[in-house]
Amino acid sequence: MEALVPGLVAIGKGLAYGLAAIGPGIGIGVVAGKAVEAMARQPEMAGRLQTTMFIGVAFTEALALLGFVLTFLL
Question: Which residues of the chain have pLDDT under 50?
Fold first, then answer.
């Protein structure tokens, strides 16, 4: 029974990081897709939209990094 505990902990860590990475992955996809759509509608605003998109991607990616850190804390 004691031999199973490290394996179950490793599976739990993997599931925690995997689930923590799903949300940011979807979020980055939505942010990038909407930014490209907006740039196609208003090409003159592409520079400002691109900057805003990068800020959004950075905040979204921070969630994935928090999940990664949480994996080590478990």
Answer: none
Q: Is the pTM of this model over 0.85?
A: no
3/57 Cα distance (integer angstroms): 41
For 38-49, the three-class secondary structure string (H helix, E strand, C coil) is: HHHHCHHHHHHH
Inter-helix orientation angle 4-41/46-73, to 10° = 170
46 C-beta neighbours (distance < 10 Å), count: 15
Decide: 17 and 69 in contact? Cβ < 8 Å.
no
State the DSSP code for 3.
Answer: T
Token pair, residue 68, equals 């990664």
